[in-house]
Amino acid sequence: MVCFSLCPFNAIDREPEDGKVRIDIERCQVCGICTSACPVSAIDMTYYDYEGLLDQIRSARKDRKTDTLVMMCRGNSPSKGEIEQILMEQDRKCHDFVIMRVPCAGRIPTPFIFNALKSGFSNIVSIQCHDDFCRMKEGTKIEARRMLLGKAVIKQLGYPDDTLKVVKYSRKAIWDSKECVGCGKCVFICPYDAIRSEPFSSPTIITEKCMGCGACQTVCPHNAIHVNGYRFEDILATCAAAATSMKARSCKSSILVFSCQWSEYSALDDPQKMLKGKNALMLEVPCFKGMDPLHVVNAFHQGFDGVMAVVCSAKDCKLQNGRDAAERQLEVLLGYLKGQGLSDRFEIHELSPRCEGEFARKFETFHERISLLPPCPLAETKGVEK
């Protein structure tokens, strides 16, 4: 009953009548903590199975010839540049490394480290969320204990002390004080009381409370605050460049997909494979609250013919505080799109990684419908600014 004791979502139970262990699939969040802890490998995972992860890093190392493996949870997922900075801070200057991204750090069993070493990696860095930031509740704490055990074992095997390194990192909101006008909207909207108003200066971010949901940046009228990696102007530029490129290379309808990083795994991890043959771009957002309605509106002005959004259901949401704000913004967005005659060009779906293949089916249906519509009438007209 190791799986039962470790499951953070009470999705595993033992029937009193027959003693059999059963999984409540509606509660399961596909974190993988149970399967990584099972001593007899009795639980199979659709996503990120043990052998699949090993094949992934072995194949990547064969192509890249690097000896550095960076393992990280999708909840923090620093960019390549940020990873390079993290490695430099750990006295590991490195510009080439293999990245392995999993739903939770607690998904990685200790034997995986030994197999990674056997595969030729001599520098392994585990980038884990801070304990209070862990979207899977106990995943970071579980993995921290495993990494301590792994470090002790590989040291006894004669490997250098710094072969395995554990780094704590979590995405937080960041200020641009030059742009802030002190309106206080971010203070009002933050669902975690992580922003404190100041009488004669810009508000203060209480870093240890910030959960990186992105609610603050969606309401900031001057783009003075953002979650690292999801800056408003960067997303705007990415969408504009993609729309231009798509229109230049194909006359097919173009589609933009916004997806919460917790509602879909396969498409976000390998969008080229999932969207192959389609004139489509997929962008990740940290949470439903971080999906800015303005990006949806601007996508149509930039030339996209359809926009699809994928978010978690209320019961699956990893950052439930403040969800009502996201739902209010969605209501306003739907009203605006209706007024512009664009309702049939936008869809939003509540999905979960446990529903394998559901995203592909929803996207295919949406793609077929958009393909039958004429080009978006808002294309090449002035977009909406904050």
- Oligomer designation: single chain
Structural class per helix/strand content?
A: alpha/beta
Assigned CATH architecture of the largest domain? 3-Layer(aba) Sandwich
Span of the ends, CA to CA: 53 Å
Strand order of the largest sheet: 4-3-5-6
Number of strands: 14
Supply Rg. Answer: 22 Å
Query: Major beta sheet, specifics?
Result: 4 strands, parallel
What is CATH's topology name of the largest domain? Answer: Ribose 5-phosphate Isomerase B, Chain: A
Which sequence of SSEs, written as H and E, runs from N to C? HEEHHEHEHEHEEHEEHEHEHHEHEHEH
Beta percentage is: 15-25%
Mean pLDDT: 91
Tell me what you see in this structure:
With 386 residues, the protein is of the alpha/beta class. It has three domains: 46-168, Rossmann fold, CATH 3.40.50; 173-227, Alpha-Beta Plaits, CATH 3.30.70; 232-371, Ribose 5-phosphate Isomerase B, Chain: A, CATH 3.40.1400. It has helices at 2-6, 33-37, 50-64, 80-89, 110-118, 139-156, 185-189, 215-219, 232-249, 266-269, 271-274, 293-302, 323-339, 358-371; strands at 12-14, 21-23, 68-73, 98-102, 123-128, 164-168, 173-175, 195-196, 204-205, 225-227, 255-260, 280-285, 306-311, 346-350. Helix 4 links the parallel strand 3 (68-73) and strand 4 (98-102).
Give a brief outline of the structure:
This protein has 386 residues and is an alpha/beta fold. The protein has 3 domains: 123 residues, Rossmann fold (3-Layer(aba) Sandwich), CATH 3.40.50; 55 residues, Alpha-Beta Plaits (2-Layer Sandwich), CATH 3.30.70; 140 residues, Ribose 5-phosphate Isomerase B, Chain: A. The protein is 36% helix and 16% strand.
